[in-house]
Amino acid sequence: MGEDHFKPALLVVDFQEDFCPPNGSLAVAGGRAIGPVVNALLKLPFATKIATRDWHPADHVSFAANHPGAEPFLSTTTVANPHNPAETVESRLWPVHCVQDTPGAALVPELDADLLDSVLDKGTRPDIEMYSAFYGPFEDPGRIADSGLAERLRAAGITDVFVVGLAGDYCVKYSALHAASEGFRAVVVEEGTRCVDPGTWDQVKAELAAGGVKVVSFEGPEVERVRARREE
Ligand code: VGL
Ligand code: ZN
């Protein structure tokens, strides 16, 4: 345990049918194509491997269908902090997706789920839009809808969090930013993600960099360091 201490976790975000062609209600272009990279990462000696599922109730605030007159992808709604009505976020509205226990919410079958240590469900509260695997967007008077992930990773002695999955401009982005703000070294493996709006990826990468998240290649030294790791 020195300054070179390296105990990496892999976070596979929302690799679910509804985010994938051909049938997903919120299909991300090329979403299925991340499968081989995700499975190759799952075979590496990460200390822990966790998948998340976007796991919404049918009355979720992010569904355009729950807001009369709203258009999926185009409309937004103002979501207030249930504990502080003065704190609000403007949240994009989506097609109905990842409704708990529906086929669209299933992890894709090509994901090598046997290699996962656990699956974490998020977005379960109807009144909060939660992109991050860690917690919802509100901060005052404290984080709410905390999944407990940061505590779990800390308890396991994790130093680095590698993030892949869908979508790069939403759940992957916010999960990686929160991993960094929780004090982990955070990286996104670029070949292992795709965006809802691919044209925004350069902007998203700038936001990730500003938040201390490194965007790396599957072929690069960061993944190589995992491959070369000796398990503790
Ligand atoms: C996501 C939009 C809505 C994601 C989840 O997983 O990136 N995007 N819900
Ligand atoms: Zn969602």
Characterization of the model:
The protein has helices at residues 35-42, 149-155, 171-181, 201-210, 221-227, and strands at 8-13, 48-54, 76-81, 84-92, 118-122, 160-166, 185-194, 213-216. It has 232 residues and is an alpha/beta fold. The protein has one domain (8-58, 98-227): Isochorismatase-like (Rossmann fold, 3-Layer(aba) Sandwich). The strands form 2 sheets. Strands 5-2-1-6-7-8 form a 6-stranded parallel β-sheet, sandwiched between helices. Strands 3-4 form a two-stranded antiparallel sheet. The radius of gyration is 17 Å and the shape is globular. The structure holds pyrazine-2-carboxylic acid and zinc ion (ZN). Pyrazine-2-carboxylic acid is lined by residues 14, 54, 62, 94, 131, 166-167, 170-171. Pyrazine-2-carboxylic acid (VGL) binds at residues 14, 54, 62, 94, 131, 166-167, 170-171.
Describe the structure in brief.
The chain is an alpha/beta fold and 232 residues long.
Please give the share of residues in helix. 10-25%
Compute the number of helices. Answer: 5
- Average of pLDDT: 97
Domain tally = 1
Instruction: Trace the largest sheet across and list its strands.
Output: 5-2-1-6-7-8
Whole-angstrom Rg: 17 Å
**CATH superfamily (homologous) name:** Isochorismatase-like
CATH class: Alpha Beta
Largest sheet properties? 6 strands, parallel
Structural class label:
alpha/beta
Globally, the shape reads globular
Instruction: List low-confidence stretches.
Output: none
Ligand types: pyrazine-2-carboxylic acid, zinc ion
